[in-house]
Design goal:
Strands 1, 2, 3, 4, 5, 6, 7 and 8 form an 8-stranded antiparallel β-sheet that branches. By secondary structure, the protein is mainly beta. The protein has a single domain, classed as Sandwich (Jelly Rolls). The protein is built from 1 helix and 8 strands. InterPro entries: Bacilysin_H2HPP_isomerase (IPR052535), Cupin_2 (IPR013096), KdgF (IPR025499), RmlC-like_jellyroll (IPR014710), RmlC_Cupin_sf (IPR011051).
Length: 108
């Protein structure tokens, strides 16, 4: 399967956050999320495993009881049901990989 960036849709989530759903099947999904400086990814949890790769920018991430500042090249793992969220310190882009697919994203 090939997914070309030009063929994907950019969704405005509001408050300085946009999302682009990339490749996905029943077991895995890749999502690009762009943040303006100061934008917040509110604390939340879900039943999916999630890897986040920081493509650009600077973020203060909270995962469970830990809080760290991350930058381009850093990777974060979120186990199912763990509370997590972030604040964007410098505008940037994250690449999120979920398993299984986030059906709620596809319905939005």
């Amino acid at each position: 399967m090939f997914i070309f960036h030009k063929d994907t849709q950019l969704d405005d989530l509001g408050n300085g956050v946009t999302r682009r759903i990339l490749a996905h099947d029943g077991k895995m999904m890749a999502v690009e999320v762009m943040f303006e400086q100061g934008a917040i990814g509110p604390m939340h949890n879900h039943p999916h495993e999630q890897l986040t790769y920081v493509l650009s920018g600077e973020f203060e991430f909270t995962i469970g009881d830990e809080k760290h500042i991350v930058t381009a090249g850093d990777t974060l793992y979120k186990q199912p049901h763990i509370m997590h969220g972030c604040v964007c310190l410098k505008a940037g882009t994250l690449l999120d990989t979920f398993t299984p697919v986030r059906e709620d994203f596809l319905k939005a």
